[in-house]
Amino acid sequence: MLNFDFYNPTQILFGKGRIADINKSIPAEAKVLVLYGGGSIKQNGVYDEVIAALGSRSVTEFTGIEPNPSYETLIKAVEIIKQNKIDFLLAVGGGSVIDGTKFIAAAALFEGDDPWVIMEKRGNNVTKALPFGSVLTLPATGSEMNNGGVVTRKSINAKLAFSSRHCFPQFSVLDPTKTFTLPVRQIGNGAVDAFVHVMEQYLTYPVNSPVQDRFAEGLLLTLIEEGPKALANPEDYDVRANLMWCATMALNGMISTGVPQDWATHMIGHELTALHNIDHAQTLAIVLPSMLRVRKESKRAKLLQYAARVWGLHDGDEDGRIETAISRTQDYFEQMGVKTRLSDYQLDAKDIKPILAALETHRMVSLGEKRDVTLDISRQVLEMSL
């Protein structure tokens, strides 16, 4: 097992009716900025519960944070914070709203001239951020219990990730009943997103870390079992609770302790979103199967472990077990309603070159747990994904 430094200060308020408890988690004298997306929270009752819980606090609202939060939108919230002397942020929505709020929290106190530098430096230049909490309505990214985020700058077609210890939510409310009305597309995307998050931390190479491995495999098995149930019975509380907690645990730092991490699939996926506005989870479903096939040799030991422990594949030759495991992974994504080919999104061979150019522009030329995913490897992955 590798050396590690684990830190996670986020308090989780899990279960039915927990939105009311944010009243105990935000200072009574706080000037709060409530941030959300397109307004669905006003249709499903979440907004009213949040406002009631905030009580007599000074409340300002900022709406319109996109599914892939844009710098152009987020920077407007920073101006509102400065104008109104806001001192606490509350993100209400899915991972994109929470990601955007993390950037806003850091940018509001950033002392440089251009907050975009936060993204260019991957958050290494963040020294402070406004305190914030979240009310999760779409389980997928795990942003509710980690310190990272992804922001798109539309003007330059860049989608970059950042992280900082200053950007953990102070608390996050996870009420599974608030996910009952999600569209089928978002249910499927959420399960796939969580699944690939686990794979990026688990399917690398062995370092004798049985605790992390078994934890990761448990999350994968749960997603495989519960995901289709959520599609069939959207208002099954236990199913939605299990999926919600899976998505949180997939990226809160627990399974990444002491193990190598990959994230090459995510980096290529980010470029697909930035250039073609494909949903984040959809890009992961496109890239991961081919990534595993192209890098089969470097990942052989973990692929065989994955085949045996997650898919129950013990018989036959190694290559056959590996291919079956990858195929079943791809089938699971399809079962969750998430297509797995570039052609499913009207992309073809001519679209590969601009993706590779974007990877090079963003210095994504040595990716993966061994930094051996070159542009040529990325090209092979994309060609296999057609």
Task: Give a quick rundown of the structure.
The chain is of the alpha/beta class and 386 residues long. The chain is 45% helix and 11% strand.
Description:
- With 386 residues, this protein is of the alpha/beta class.
- The chain has two domains: 11-178, Rossmann fold, CATH 3.40.50.1970; 182-384, Dehydroquinate synthase-like - alpha domain (Dehydroquinate synthase-like, alpha domain).
- It has 13 helices and eight strands.
- The strands form two sheets. The chain has a six-stranded parallel β-sheet, sandwiched between helices.
- Strand 6 and strand 7 (158-163) form a beta hairpin.
- Helix 6 runs antiparallel to helix 7 (237-249) and helix 9 packs antiparallel against helix 11.
- The protein is globular and about 65 Å long.
- 50% of the residues are buried.
- The model has no long low-confidence stretch (mean pLDDT 96).
